[in-house]
Specification:
This protein has 2 domains: 10-43; 45-79. It is 87% helix and 0% strand. It has helices at residues 7-43, 45-80. The longest helix has 37 residues, at 7-43.
Length: 84
């Protein structure tokens, strides 16, 4: 039983236990993350409402940008059509 007195034996044991613990903790964390993700996707209604609100805001923004684009085109035409 001289092996238990060796420093390298204990360093190896600590490393192996640490690796096993890290793998187990990572697996449990991924399992909890997947359960949370699954619950979020099944609830889905909150995301749909948020998507609808964002869609309305984006459509309003696009309309305003189209108006600005038209005005900018008119100013650009005025500046390029200056008679000499």
């Amino acid at each position: 039983m001289e092996i238990f007195y060796s420093l390298w034996f204990w360093i190896g044991i600590i490393a192996v236990v640490g690796i096993i613990a890290g793998v187990v903790i990572h697996a449990l964390d991924k399992k909890a993350e997947m359960a949370k993700h699954l619950a979020d996707t099944q609830a889905g209604g909150d995301y749909r409402a948020l998507a609808e609100q964002t869609l309305e805001a984006n459509q309003a923004l696009i309309q305003r940008l189209d108006v600005l684009d038209g005005r900018l085109a008119a100013v650009e035409k005025t500046l390029t059509d200056i008679p000499q």
